[in-house]
Amino acid sequence: MKHSKSEKQIAGEKATDYIKDGMVVGLGTGSTVYYTIKRLGTLVKKGLKIEAVSTSSATTKLAKSLGIPLVSANDVSRIDVTIDGADEIDPRFYAIKGGGGALLYEKIVATISRKVICVVDSTKLTNQIGRFPLPVEVVPFAYKHVLKKLAKNGLEATLRLNEDKKPYLTDEKNMILDLRLGRIESPTELADWLNGIPGIVEHGLFIDLINEVMVGEKNLCKILKRKQDR
Ligand SMILES: O=C[C@H](O)[C@H](O)[C@H](O)COP(=O)(O)O
User: Fold this and answer.
1) Which residues form the signal peptide (predicted)?
2) Model-level pTM?
3) Catalytic residue among 7, 13, 106, 202
């Protein structure tokens, strides 16, 4: 029996339409972009010539297994297009990312990309971000002090743990604090404030980085556009 594709698969696969011969492609992380990477693997096998920059060890492993040529971020002068998922995204394309712990590399790759396409299922769309806990990457040296600073400002955060109940470590061997906010009144203000706290390496607020959102909705892919490519 043929079963229908999930919304994630519909959006993830559709995004590969943007990828053409000769492009440097940023590959995000997660269960939606998984479908993008799988489809890209098939296209590469059929002769598509691209180079890809990966945003996590998980994506690197998947891309390698599919024969997608990888290059490190430092070895490219630009990325033509990056495809990545999101945990929540609002109508201004402000997003929360990092549910899978890859926010630091994802933000670097998005920042050096000419165009960022976000692939999501319909549950990720929201009018106001903040329901999803905001991931904040911190250096282990300072995590307790960062927690204290957040608590002093009324922000409740928990240290992310792995399956063994040990602190989860990112690809950069940092820790993640998940901030339970409920709703974020001013994402830009919060982003600036977090950026100013020593010990915080990066946070999962993506502001003015996403150009286009591809949303899987039932069995269709809706494309939302916001602004010019960089
Ligand atoms: O760190 C993980 C990334 O930011 C993901 O892109 C995000 O968590 C969305 O992942 P998924 O597509 O699995 O919901």
Assistant:
1) none
2) 0.96
3) 106
